[in-house]
Protein: tRNA modification GTPase MnmE
Organism: Desulfurobacterium indicum
Amino acid sequence: MKDYLCEDTIAAISTPLSKGAIGIVRISGKKALEILKKVFRTKSGKPKETFENRKMTYGIIVDENNDEIDEVLAVYMKGPKTFTGEDVVEIHSHGGIYVVRKILKRVLSEGARLAEPGEFTKRAFLNGRIDLVQAEAINEIINAESELSLKVAVNHLKGSLSSKIESIRDMLFHLKAFIEAAVDFPEEEIEIIETGKVKEKVEKATEKIEKLLETYDDGRIIREGIKIAIAGRPNVGKSSLLNALLKEERAIVTDIPGTTRDVIEEAVTLKGIPVRLIDTAGIREAKDVVEKIGIDKTKEKLKEADIILFVIDGSTGFTEEDKKIYETLKDNPNLIVVINKKDQGLKVSCKDFENTCVEISAKEGEGIEVLSEVVMKKLLLEPETLFKETEAMITSERHKNLLEKALKSLQNMKKSIEYGIESPEFLALDLDEALNALGEIVGKKGIEDMLDIIFSTFCIGK
């Protein structure tokens, strides 16, 4: 895989396609330098035959008629010590949408192909510059929505998770050597199995995998965030609570019941954790088709939520309508009762509920910080200790599934030994399955069919 080298040269715009100070067109492949020489001129309009490796050169990009498109800074980076492992060129122009597109079009006219989403990173992986975990980490960095998710992604890019996976693979490869020796020298089978301490090694590898899997629940939350649904009857202050948590006014707040007819979703960070706040339509008997659709969506979102904030207007008390809704939610372990409008005087208190409960004033912002802390405790999250940069963490469902597959194979192997089935051929089958699953995580086994799926989630130009 390290010897892989694409025959064609690719190009794409690597900066956001919008107005800005700078726009970058990136080229990678064997013809990168050749293409640069064709489209680049010095400021005086003369062709430039030599470009110093990794040094910015000032000049202009010209069209097919040698008319100037834009003033640029161009840099040539000779492979294999580049991001993709190939020759790479970057053209830095002014950041207008039209001018950057025109430069890209000019580059494509000289023999480059438009890159597919994530193709630059895919080439970096295929050329052995990074492993598959690190390639995925680049996309995680781009999509990070909080300080914590960024730290985890950077940690993955540095190779913290890869090194953990590789250490387990090394352990199993050593074990495989003992087992293959037993196959090659059958008369020494029992002695080799005992000498190699197969069971102990399997148990040690199993413990390491289980420890990694234990990080997934927290890792998923760091990467994807928490889904918090705000529910309740109309006009109890759900939208006011949403605005208080966002610390800005996004939802319409009026005294008219049923103002929120659709589901409103907003992103916010609580205690460093990314959160998806879902302000739902008030739950009641719908008065028209539009409101019924909104209420149906509310019920769907409540099923998906990690936390449900059931909001009550404490100034009017616990109404019959509140009770009907509460009866459908009270058995949910992640329900938090939020008694709102504390500033107006409360006719109901947290003492009246067995569920976790917080008294607030969304309008005045009172109790919002306490509510944030209660949400963290409800999910058993401690943001201060959730992630340590020295430790690896599983955030990807793909990694989780493959670790579980490897774990199951090792558990089967251990059971075989305990049942007295010590045939090295049988043990080798389970061991190979575990090694293959771990190899898939870092991209060293059976990943050809997955590459297009994984890299299709990247942006073009990365």
